[in-house]
Amino acid sequence: MAIWNGKPLVEDAKDGGVQIAYLAADMARTLSGGLERLLFMGLWNEVAVFAVDIEGSADPADGPLEGLGRFEDLRMIALTLPAGDAGILATAKSMFEWRRKHRHCAACGDISEVAEGGWKRVCPSCKAQHFPRTDPVVIMLAVHGEKCLLGRQAAWPKQMYSALAGFLEPGESIEEACARELFEEAALRATKVRYHSTQPWPYPSSLMIGLIAEVENDEAVPDNIEIDEVRWFTREETRALVAGGLPDAKAPGMMAIAAQLIKAWSEEG
Ligand SMILES: [Zn+2]
Questions:
Q1: pTM for the whole thing?
Q2: Quick one: which of 212, 201, 200, 123 has its CA closest to 174?
């Protein structure tokens, strides 16, 4: 399977969606130019499957891969891919982003070498080993009684509201990160945090941790740095958001974990 500048090679599927377009092994080997740009994805029916990372400005689908598929933005096609293909492509995309940004050893600066099928990098000078990373992000729906809080940033599409979110900091528990972010962005004090679900988000390597947090009161104040506006929604309003939106408010699409949190809470009452 091929990834060109972060875009996977896909083809039309019989169900009207798209699916991964697989290449013959010798073609992938030629395109890769060596081990550095190959990632071992595992065995599928006893056959070794690799992903190949292609860079450069010329679209390979107009060159050596003509007629074998097309390169598409993963985020744009995620909902039309089979779930398994989406997961496989998320892995390859995220791993190649890591590879591109970690060519040099973080300890001594020498050029590191690929090892273990692309899943590790080793420094030939200081012998340090480097592993791919996943960056946890907490994303939470603050709730108080029969209403929940969503926020918006000025840069977002008009009327778009979503759950508050932020990166987990070193040394924090998930619950602490949730409480800190709610206090920083909306001046709210969390009293109880419960886990809902997670979602890999390979842009470039996050894991979204979805939470529902009860807060002390409804006196939310936006920080005007990350969040420009906060708004409380009743359950009835959240049901309308899930169904397509209110006249003056929209929620993210169902692919986003924020929408799943809103939906889950809207169905609880
Ligand atoms: Zn080193």
A1: 0.90
A2: 212
